[in-house]
Amino acid sequence: TRSNSNRTMKVVVYGSYPSRLSPAENQPSPLRLLPDSSLLFSPRPLFLPEVAPSFVARAAVALRVGRLGKSVAERFAGRYIDAVSAAYVVEACPSDALDSVERAFDGAAVLGRWQPLSHTPRQGAMYAYRFDCAGGAAGSQTYVHSATADTAAAVVSRASRYATLKTGDIFLLCAPAAFELSPDSRLTAAVAHTAAASGSVLNVNVK
Prior knowledge:
- By secondary structure, this protein is mainly beta.
- The chain is built from three helices and twelve strands.
- It is globular.
């Protein structure tokens, strides 16, 4: 079994919008790249950088690519995904004034424990996780986010038209909602519709 941090090539974020845009104004959802240095693996703590006055965390379903591919047809793209997990995409606010490097800080993508695709519980062809943010000024926040197999295949196929898929590539499919973060927040995630202890895949303290 591969370790969490082994052989990551690139990180592709889907569905994360600059604050000046909304999904209705910007279709289709943008794709953006993060470097592998932006990845933080649970349970390591997340230290918020000093690039902005505030931060939010978007729940995301993470997909890991397990084979090489280019211009992959959508109907075959699901075969390129070998594992899934829960993740958070951490964004500085406001993000409009930040350049691409400032948005790609260490910890901009918080990743949970990988689950082999063949062993991942799915609800009607959906990869579903429950996300919780505890502590901080906003108090306890909970959100259930899922991605269908069709959406996952469409995003992977679309990206493969422009950049070759490589083993270890990670796709993060973001939810529209975001949690407000503060230095005493705690981010967790678990497989949806299971007991929290048995389905836990991510647990990170924010500093």
